[in-house]
UniProtKB/TrEMBL annotation:
<protein>
    <submittedName>
        <fullName>DUF1289 domain-containing protein</fullName>
    </submittedName>
</protein>
<dbReference type="Pfam" id="PF06945">
    <property type="entry name" value="DUF1289"/>
</dbReference>
<dbReference type="InterPro" id="IPR010710">
    <property type="entry name" value="DUF1289"/>
</dbReference>
Length: 73
């Protein structure tokens, strides 16, 4: 008896990220000056669900206002 080989799944799905490779955390706001996430969010990004990541990403534009514009260049 021939047992069919299970098909291989495709490559893993890419995880959406707001990272722009500017990794500097503002001590005053606690937010990354590149992506506006907290260190806890950055460290645990892969463990978050798609819905949790989407919620954080939806909040990022409002977080920008928490950072002194002079620090953003």
């Amino acid at each position: 008896m021939i047992v069919p080989t299970p098909s291989r799944p495709g490559p893993p799905k890419a995880i959406a990220t707001p990272c722009v490779m500017v990794c500097a955390v503002d001590g005053e706001s606690g937010l990354c000056l590149g992506c506006f996430r907290t260190l806890k969010e950055i460290a645990g990004w892969r463990a978050l669900s798609d819905a949790e990541r989407a919620a954080v990403m939806a909040d990022l534009p409002t977080r920008r206002s928490q950072v002194d514009p002079a620090k953003l260049g």
